[in-house]
Design a protein that fits this description.
Elements: H1 20-28, H2 35-38, H3 44-57, E1 66-73, E2 77-81, E3 84-89, E4 94-100, E5 102-110, E6 117-124, E7 128-133, H4 135-156, H5 160-172, H6 176-188, H7 196-208, H8 212-224, H9 232-244, H10 250-259
Parallel strand pairs: 1-7
Antiparallel strand pairs: 1-4, 2-3, 2-5, 5-6
C-alpha cells in the first residue's frame, strides 16, 4: 500500500501571486493550524520521515547484513575497525567480530609498545571470513631498519667493528641493505678479516631479495671467481637481474662479456 504524501494548497493561497520560496517554505516547514487546512497533518518533512520509517519497518529497506570476521594476529594487539577499538587479540588466537557486510578500515596495533602497526582496507562479503596479520614480520622489518641505521652511523664515523655488529643484527632480521653491506665489508676486509666466501654468502642473501647492488656485485664475484668458481653464465645472469632493476653498471658489464665472447 502506498503512503499518501500529497500536498493540497492552503485555502486562499494564490500560487500564481505568492513566490515560489514562500510556497516551498509553507510546504516543507510550516506547522498548519489543522490537518484539514493543508490536506495533511504535520509538515511535509514530518510526513516524509514517517513514510521512510514505515518502509524500513515493513522490510522494504532491510538493515545491513551482519557477517563474522575471524581475526588472527601473530602478536598481542588491539583491533580497530573504522577507527573504533573493537577487540584485544592474543597472539595466535582467533577473535570473532560481528560486522556489517561491506568495506571498512582495519588497524592492528601491538599492545607491547604500540610501535608495530598494520593498517588496511578490507571488504567483507561472505557470511564468515578469516583474516591474518603478521605483526611479527612488521616488527622484524622495523627492528631491521632501526639497526641498519645504527650501522650506517657507525660506518660513517669509521667505526667498522660497530657497523659490523649492527649490520649483523639487521641482516638477521632479513634486512637486504644490511646483508649487502656485510657482503662488502667481508669482500674488502672492513672491520673483519677479508673473506670472499662470507662475502658471497651475504651478497646472495640480499640478491635473492631483489637488492640490485647485491645482484651486481654477486655477478662480479662470479665473473672474477672470488669466493665461487668462475662462471660467466652465472655472472651474466646476475648482471641481467641487476639491469632489470636499472643498476647503472650492469648493462656495461653484460656488453663487455658479450664483446669477449663469454656469453
Amino acid at each position: 500500500m502506498t503512503e499518501d504524501i500529497s500536498y493540497s494548497p492552503r485555502p486562499g493561497m494564490d500560487t500564481k501571486r505568492d513566490s515560489f520560496g514562500e510556497i516551498l517554505s509553507h510546504m516543507l516547514f510550516d506547522e498548519p493550524d489543522t490537518g484539514e487546512e493543508w490536506g495533511f497533518s504535520g509538515t511535509l518533512v514530518d510526513r516524509l520521515k514517517k513514510f521512510f520509517a514505515k518502509k524500513t519497518a515493513t522490510g522494504s529497506a532491510p538493515p545491513p547484513e551482519t557477517c563474522i570476521l575471524n581475526i588472527c594476529s601473530s602478536l598481542d594487539c588491539t583491533v580497530f575497525v573504522g577507527g573504533v577499538q573493537r577487540a584485544e587479540a592474543r597472539a595466535g588466537e582467533t577473535v570473532r567480530l560481528s560486522l556489517h557486510r561491506g568495506t571498512f578500515a582495519l588497524a592492528f596495533v601491538s599492545t607491547e609498545d604500540g610501535r608495530d602497526r598494520h593498517e588496511c582496507k578490507y571488504t567483507l562479503s561472505a557470511p564468515e571470513e578469516s583474516f591474518s596479520v603478521d605483526l611479527d614480520g612488521i616488527r622484524q622489518k622495523r627492528l631491521g631498519a632501526e639497526w641498519y641505521r645504527e650501522g650506517e652511523k657507525c660506518y660513517s664515523s669509521q667505526d667498522y667493528p660497530g657497523a659490523i655488529g649492527w649490520y649483523r643484527k639487521a641482516a638477521g632480521e632479513g634486512h637486504a641493505g644490511a646483508q649487502f653491506e656485510l657482503g662488502g665489508m667481508y669482500r674488502y676486509g672492513c672491520g673483519v678479516q677479508r673473506d670472499y666466501f662470507r662475502a658471497v654468502e651475504w651478497y646472495r642473501r640480499a640478491a635473492e631479495q631483489g637488492h640490485a647492488g647485491a645482484q651486481f656485485d654477486l655477478g662480479g664475484m662470479y665473473e672474477m671467481g672470488c669466493g665461487v668458481p668462475q662462471n660467466y653464465s652465472q655472472a651474466a645472469d646476475w648482471y641481467r637481474r641487476a639491469a632489470a632493476r636499472r643498476h647503472e653498471g650492469a648493462e656495461k658489464n653484460l656488453a663487455r662479456l658479450r664483446a669477449k665472447g663469454y656469453i
